[in-house]
Design a protein that fits this description.
This protein has 379 residues and is α+β, with helices and mostly antiparallel strands. Helices cover 22% and strands 28% of the residues. Helix 3 runs parallel beside helix 5.
């Protein structure tokens, strides 16, 4: 992760840091989710379908015809969405690309001209990548999608070259995540705990995506799995390690912040950092939200599960320091009233987009264990 030491175990082959591994993947559309996974992992590769909505049948047609009519004169139009952002749509292949440009204040004709140039450049680049088979191509499984549909997609891809495909499933209704495995010479499959909501592609389950991509990269490149525990910041600031009690600061429900200011001069503004802490919510509290805070630009995160009481759970947030007039902060936030409270301990700030999810929870104190035994409940 710039952030994780490169490994040379077993094969003697250096394993690139997370950002380098993420550059080995290219999205086959679906929606923008995997584009955000790469961004949160520190990678910003160019890709024709990286931030695009692409129905499967239309994608197969585009691959079968070498994207020949994508970006042809008259093919592209700009569509204003409900969010006030322009999407560029191919009328031939029904590919919708997020321009990430607001309708208000944007020169329509200049943006459309830019999109024609972007599509021409990235289309040539994608066809070259397909011919060499150098990239791992990612496609999520749509609800109700049969195996035969994926087989047609694979056939359309392989007519260009020997690319490896990563087929990604969502956990089933019981929360079981399909394990990572190779299902063919050029097909990898695995799962994540959840896909991002349809209209919130940025809300990714970053931990499970990173684990899946690392496994796919290791299998594809013939290298060991990377050590994904985050590397301490060279200028790590002192943060609380012992147990701290927090309570709502307002009579009516509102935001109570328990944070420390960061010194931007001590951090790389473009590097992802992750803050994590263990929290315990007592049975009598009823907060609306307990969450971690990290920097200005929020990337991945995991809020507290409000159904878990009287035991430790970890919350975390990844972000960048970025630039700006006001000093960024790190710590915890509570949305709730004066009667809401929780405990926290073991605050950590490291380089990286995800925490060390193998870290064990804090041990219960001997006094708590004795009281629990005497009272038959947690205290």
């Amino acid at each position: 992760m710039g952030m994780v030491s490169a490994s040379t175990e077993a094969t003697g082959t250096p394993v690139p840091p997370l950002a380098g591994r993420m550059h080995a993947f290219r999205s086959l559309g679906g929606n923008c989710e995997f584009g955000f996974v790469q961004r949160y992992g520190g990678a910003e590769p160019s890709g024709l379908l990286r931030f695009a909505y692409t129905p499967l049948d239309d994608l197969i047609e585009a691959l079968t015809t070498d994207f020949s009519r994508y970006g042809a004169p008259g093919d592209l139009i700009l569509e204003a969405t409900e969010t006030g952002v322009y999407y560029c749509r191919s009328q031939t292949y029904n590919i919708w690309s997020n321009t990430q440009r607001q309708v208000e204040g944007t020169d329509h004709d200049a943006l459309l001209e830019h999109e024609y140039g972007r599509v021409a450049h990235l289309k040539a680049k994608m066809l070259a990548d397909l011919a060499t088979g150098a990239k791992i191509l990612v496609r999520k499984v749509e609800p109700g999608e049969p195996d035969s549909a994926f087989a047609r997609l694979a056939e359309a891809v392989w007519r260009h070259g020997p690319s490896t495909l990563l087929r990604v499933h969502e956990a089933d209704d019981d929360g079981v995540v399909p394990p990572f495995r190779r299902t063919g010479p050029r097909v990898l499959e695995g799962g994540v705990r959840r896909f991002a909501p349809g209209e919130q592609a940025w809300d990714v389950d970053l931990e499970s995506w990173v684990a899946l991509c690392d496994a796919a990269y290791a299998e594809h490149a013939g290298v060991p799995l990377a050590w994904l525990a985050p590397a301490p910041s060279a200028d790590a600031m002192r943060l609380p390690r012992g147990t701290t009690r927090h309570k709502g600061l307002h009579r009516e429900p509102g935001l109570s912040a328990f944070t420390k200011l960061l010194d931007p001069a001590r951090f790389d503004p473009a590097t992802p950092y992750v803050f994590s802490a263990w929290v315990r919510i007592p049975a009598g509290a009823s907060p609306e939200r307990i969450f971690a805070v990290m920097g200005r630009e929020r990337l991945g995160w995991c809020d507290a599960d409000l159904t878990v009481r009287d035991r430790w759970q970890r919350v975390w947030a990844a972000g960048r320091i970025g630039t700006g007039q006001h000093r960024p902060c790190v710590g915890l936030g509570l949305i709730g009233g004066a009667g809401d409270r929780f405990q926290s301990r073991d605050w950590h700030l490291h380089e990286g987009p995800v925490p060390d999810w193998a870290a064990p929870p804090p041990p219960e104190s001997a006094v708590r264990a004795v009281l629990q035994g005497l009272l038959g409940r947690r205290t």
